[in-house]
Amino acid sequence: MSHRHTSIMGVVNVTPDSFSDGGRFVDPAAAVARGRDLAAAGAELIDVGGESTRPGSSRPSEDEERGRVLPVVSALAQEGYAVSIDTMRASVAQAALEAGAVLVNDVSGGLGDPEMGPMVAQTGARYVVMHWRGLLSDPTATHHYDDVVGEVCAELADRVDALVGLGVREEQLVLDPGLGFSKDAGHNWTLLAGLDRVVALGLPVLVGASRKRFLGRLPARPGAPVPDEPTAPQERDVATAATSLLAAQAGAWAVRVHEVGPTRDALAVWELTQGAAGAR
Q: Is 59 a catalytic residue?
């Protein structure tokens, strides 16, 4: 039985207010050191972002965002690491690509900046299209779905069509179902269960469940109630590793995580088990 290798994308938040590690890596030297550590632990991509998408966070100015991320992207790229830029702004993405980034990770799926699609088409960069309805209305709102997996797949396919219409090639694109964005815990669990349908759209899929709130509200034992208060984000890395394993089983191209070690071990278990199954 053959299977796809699932890569690890490690997160470096160069922000004062990200939900998971806001403020820890605002200093460029600390952020670069964090990127090195993530790569040493097994991350194949380092995702550098300068804008928090935490509910209630205020957007930095374009100059502020550029000032946060470009020194970090440039330093890591010069050291030979594969860097992605997490931004909704085309100008920031283009500057990061010029500084050595190899991929643009856009949580708005191109809806946050009308210049993003043409820029991606012109540069030929790899581009992550995430599902998020927030930029169409209230970014913190949870939306109604009759069939969350089907609707997310359809809306991602619509974004692909729109981007291709702007000159982007399909082989540049990566899809992200947007766990936690315009979705409640039930939607997230259903999407995790239906990841194979997202993968079946035929493009590489990135899954970003890491440390999200729904992973902090797990029952103490099977059948027990879900707790009202979530655990701290840093206490969700084992649950994150479990989602990484589910993503690998569904055929995901990559998983985006804050702490690489637990996910690296979970994916190693998957790889070795699959290898043993193929050798029987």
A: no
Give the Cα separation of 171 and 74 in Å (integer). 25
- Tell me the CB-side half-sphere exposure of residue 27, using CA atoms within 13 A: 5
Q: Residues near 123 by Cβ (< 8 Å), separated by ≥ 6? A: 94, 97
Residue type, 12: V
| Residue 98, helix vs strand vs coil | helix
Mean pLDDT calculated for residue range 157-173: 98
- pLDDT computed for residue 55 by the predictor: 64
Q: What is the pLDDT of residues 197-224, one digit of tens each?
A: 999 999 999 999 999 999 999 999 999 9
Instruction: Choose among 124, 103, 207, 206: nearest CA to 170.
Output: 124
Phi (first) and psi of residue 84, to 5 degrees: -110, 150
Helical residues (DSSP H) of the chain, grouped into ranges: 28-41, 62-78, 90-98, 116-123, 148-165, 185-193, 195-199, 237-250, 260-279
Q: Which residues contact 126 (CB under 8 A, 6 or more apart)?
A: 84, 102, 103, 104, 172, 173, 174
User: Judging by beta carbons within 10 Å of its beta carbon (0-12, 13-18, 19+), is residue 9 exposed, middle or buried?
Assistant: buried
Residue 248, pLDDT above cutoff 90: yes
Measured distance CA(236)–CA(169) in Å, rounded: 36
The closest alpha carbon to 40, from 3, 78, 76, belongs to 76
Establish whether 183 is a catalytic residue.
Answer: no
Identified catalytic residue from 126, 212, 236, 264:
212
Query: How far is it, in rounded angstroms, from Cα 220 to Cα 42?
Result: 30
